[in-house]
Design a protein that fits this description.
Elements: H1 12-22, E1 32-36, E2 39-43, H2 45-51, H3 53-58, E3 73-77, E4 83-87, H4 92-104, H5 129-139, H6 146-151, H7 155-162, H8 187-197, H9 201-205
Parallel strand pairs: 1-4
Antiparallel strand pairs: 1-2, 3-4
Helix pairs in contact: 1-4, 4-8
Protein name: BTB domain-containing protein
Organism: Cirrhinus mrigala (Mrigala)
Pfam families: BTB
Amino acid sequence: LYEVPSASASTFPQHFQRLLAEADETDSIHDVTLQAGDRTFAAHKYVLSMRSDFFRKALLPEGCKVGVGDGEVKKGEDAVGCDLLVLEKVPSEMLEQALQFIYTNSCEMLIHGTRPVVPRSNQSSDPEPQQLIHSLQALGLENRSALDVYRSLPANAHEDAEKPKTKSTKSGKKGKSGNVGESGQNPVKMLQGVAKKLGLGSLSAR
């Protein structure tokens, strides 16, 4: 063997990523539209059915549809008359990640170092760290310790801070399953739950 054969890396993931990214409700290639929250995603029945048991059952004719929970999917038509599936119990950000996995066998939240996007309804109202730094600088507190600031507070502020917290503050604590409470759910756990709901066992395992 005088010439060493070389095989280039597969370009399927890039092609399928482009197919998903360029899909539009008005094109002539997509044949189903998914809606979650206020966002819609044009997709392709064959790809969804090959990767997801949930979509395979949901896309069967009405008389043969089995295994899809009541109220989880509502069917309709999109702008050009193709099937429309409304997923009321799936956050749009999690559906976007699941579709990336269905088409490319990967998604942003499987990449180390990616900062996941928390669904809007669960985003915390806490300010960004940079805003806190600017606020401390404006008050001249950036170089003072927390204890020093605490001692400089009025006496009534000390009393308020030392009062026992009510039971209502426990809503943000972790439950038995380890998920963060309503104040900020764990996006990785949320994606895992959506993956199980959509029949994506490999995504749930990873």
